[in-house]
Amino acid sequence: MALTIPLISSGVAGPLGAIHLPRLWQKLTLSATGNLAEDYPECGMGFDQMVLDGLKVDRDAAVNYVKENKPSYPEFEKWVLDQRGGSIPQEEIDASNAAITGYHHDDDTRKAVLSASGISDDGSILDAVNLNNLDDWQEFHAQVTG
Predict the structure, then answer these.
(1) Which of 7, 8, 9, 14 shows its CA 20 to 30 Å from the CA of 137?
(2) What tens digit of pLDDT does each residue of 94-105 get?
(3) What average pLDDT does this structure show over 66-89?
(4) DSSP one-letter code for 8
């Protein structure tokens, strides 16, 4: 059985409104069940850490919660809120979202992702969210088509 490539985009938010949080939950859940594709970190230092920092949630606590409880996404969001006393100021969610949507990969990474996807680097795709989507989709396609 092939391990799963996470396909929830970093640009997706759940009811809380925090983008990337659903993808982090998916990666943590896949890892906790032994199903995360090998090239994907359980909880990396990029967007994973950015959303945790932005929401002021402890990394180890989040990883351990998912490993031990395997929550549904709404349960995970509730746990995140509980870590903050039941609410997170909208300004913090907005700042976290802006940090993620405003992040750009370096030129070499951008060029490699676009090249692997057969897309010319004409300067129209700069943000890491869309580049990561393309990378995930390319990895998925390669996995399922051999």
Answers:
(1) 14
(2) 999 999 999 999
(3) 98
(4) S
